[in-house]
Amino acid sequence: MQNFRFMSPTDFIFGKDTELQVGTEIQKYGKKVLFHYGGGHIKKNGLYDRIITSMDDSGIEYIELGGVKANPDVGLVREGIEICREEQVDFILAAGGGSVIDSAKAIAMGVSYERDVWDFFEGEAEIPEALPVGVILTIPATGSEASNTTVVTNSAEGHLKRAVSSDLLKPVFSIMNPELTYSLPAYQTAAGGVDIMSHVLERYFTLEPDCGFTDRLCEATLRTVIQCLPNVLKNPNDYAARAELMWTGTIAHNGILGVGRIEDWGSHMLGHEISALYDLTHGATLSIIIPQWMEYVYQTDLTRFVKYAVNVWQVEEDFYHPERTALEGMKRTKEYFRSVGMPVSLSEAGIGAEGIEEMAEKCTKYGAVGGFMKLEKEDCMTIYKNAR
Amino acid sequence: MQNFRFMSPTDFIFGKDTELQVGTEIQKYGKKVLFHYGGGHIKKNGLYDRIITSMDDSGIEYIELGGVKANPDVGLVREGIEICREEQVDFILAAGGGSVIDSAKAIAMGVSYERDVWDFFEGEAEIPEALPVGVILTIPATGSEASNTTVVTNSAEGHLKRAVSSDLLKPVFSIMNPELTYSLPAYQTAAGGVDIMSHVLERYFTLEPDCGFTDRLCEATLRTVIQCLPNVLKNPNDYAARAELMWTGTIAHNGILGVGRIEDWGSHMLGHEISALYDLTHGATLSIIIPQWMEYVYQTDLTRFVKYAVNVWQVEEDFYHPERTALEGMKRTKEYFRSVGMPVSLSEAGIGAEGIEEMAEKCTKYGAVGGFMKLEKEDCMTIYKNAR
Fold first, then answer.
1. B333/B329 Cα distance (integer angstroms)
2. Which of A215, A231, A330 has its CA nearest to residue B212?
3. Do B12 and A9 touch (CB under 8 A)?
């Protein structure tokens, strides 16, 4: 086990009706709020009204900025930063899924920075401070309600999709009511489930052998998603299954599953380029890439893929033919993604081969990617090609 | 799953040589430190000198208060409070195991309280504020490096052992170097392992059925302790196993394994009375009580005990005779405690039956104990008697 630091300062407020507390929670941190959200979904399902009422009851002043789209763009982030400066906002409330939260985090870190916020995403500046961000989560997926990361797209300057991490970006609170996820469309629910699994897999696949405890915690998280996701697709209003799924999303990405090891993140880098170029849902890029990534890298540490097959997918171990066991685990991964309605090839997502070189080029712009196996541009091209 | 709140704000700094950072970590929170520790162990193994050097290098002023004993007493806590007031201490550093940390937490909450600190333990006052506490952990066991709880004994006023919980008591940082545990005697290592397991078991045994994710995380933690503890007893300098064991102690008690459910804690209440009356090591009281507690309560929810047997102890499930499966899991628990050198009866710990009524009386002083099954005085007496 390698040396590590771990801290999860976010106050998770989980369960039925918890969104009604948002006003009193905000009072602990600020007085003037940028209320940030996406499209009309929260207005249709009544969440918007409940938030407004709670803030009014607590005497919180707020300015609204809706319109965040999937793969949130730096354009709206810049707009949010301007508003916060002009209106002297001291708190940002993000009500939505990962896109809204990531957009809010990017605004939060840009307000006190004199130059352009995109500098942070290009690695040209360190984050000095950030406004506190509070979350009301409506989509279990990205784990952004717990993570120190924001992922933003710059569509005007070449379809770049980049991530920035800093502990200053961890939300001060995250309100999580599983009932708010009842109305999620099946596709979005499944894409979220794949995203959650991917956050565990990016950590599980490591070259560090002596971290059996965290491996077990990863396996427990994966098995829970694997069990709950089909249940919620069948019964969207199954509270217990929705609640389990929502909480796995947080644990998958608050850092606890990555302690003491080098994580991978190659699949995310590969997937981000697909989203940037084709605006495909994040979870769909992962259901396409992960099976191909596995096939490409598994010989780097066959033992780990055997362990994955046995402990996560309950594959009966073929002790004399470990590769067969490993391949069976990989096969089940792909079949599972397909079974929950997610694409497992670029063509299934309506994407051709013409962008492959461009994506591989951008993916490795800052060097090889991936902690489990370093992927150069050629490796990325092969994985993309195998995913056609 | 029930509604819950979860937050783990402690900064865990884990790994080799991490104690050398203590001075720079303290600088973030205070300038004048009460350096609190136990007996001479940290002086013998060089930790004391490394801490002093690090604080000196960082320009930290400090006053020492050593002498904390197992089952820390409120007498020394009162002394620490006086020192902090007189010397205007603004930070407490606890270097040791759970007793030292608990003593430090009790001092931290008593400094600004005008009356006697024992009031908090009698439930006669709420904790208004507390000095920040930092930890250098030397014994993986109580989880106090992560928990919001302090357990203190009042030996002068009737051998009372009481716990107080408040989020204000969570340490601001906990430095955890597994190498510092190499020199722990086997008995203390094993007692610590039992304590860690008990913190998971107190949460695992719940009447809440819909919390499969957290159940899996509990099972993962238990299996890790079960595997690692014999390894470290055999090879005290096995870094990987010491590290795993140390980290299970934190996860077992930082709250993450108890979300969404009513926890039990009956065994702890029963065990505390044994410690208070006979000054027996906490872990030894648990290895005695837990098997008897299980036998006494398992029919309350047989299914959960079957799950425990199968998922934790890999008992082959006897589908037509679930009780046999459950009993086998309980049997293995007891055998395991014995196999790591811990007592499984009062007589093995040199304790007779004469204190049973007194212990049962004190244990239920504030009413029945236990969330899985409510134990009245008569129930406690039976469990103590069965443990003779």
1. 6
2. A231
3. no
Its domain, for residue A342, covers 184-386
Q: How many domains does chain B have?
A: 2
The pLDDT of residue A145 is 97
- CA pair distance A48, A43, nearest whole angstrom: 5
Question: pLDDT tens, A185-220?
Answer: 999 999 999 999 999 999 999 999 889 999 999 999
Which residue of A lies nearest to B210 if distances are taken between CA atoms? Answer: A240
- What confidence score (pLDDT) does residue B279 get? 87
Assess whether A127 and A196 both reside in one domain: no
- Considering only CB atoms, which chain A residues are within 8 Å of B227? 212
Phi-psi category of residue A71: left, alpha or beta, with phi > 0 → left and psi -120 to 50 → alpha: left
Contact A221 B244 (CB under 8 A): no
The B-side interface with A (CB below 8 A) comprises 1-16, 18, 210-213, 216-217, 219-221, 223-224, 227, 239-240, 243-244, 247-248, 251, 256, 259-260
Which chain A residue's Cα is nearest to B254?
A8
pLDDT tens digit sequence for B331-383: 999 999 999 999 999 999 999 999 999 999 999 999 999 999 999 999 999 99
Q: How confident is the model at residue B161 (pLDDT cuts 50, 70, 90)?
A: confident
Choosing from A164, A180, A196, the residue where a domain stops is: A180
Contact residues, chain A, for B11 at CB < 8 Å: 5, 7
In angstroms, the separation between the Cα of residue B17 and the nearest Cα of chain A is: 9
B303: exposed, middle or buried (Cβ count in 10 Å: 0-12, 13-18, 19+): exposed
Residues B2, A15: C-beta atoms closer than 8 Å: yes
Amino acid at A155: S
Same domain, A297 and A242: yes
CA distances from A21 to A103, B215, B388 (A): 23, 28, 50
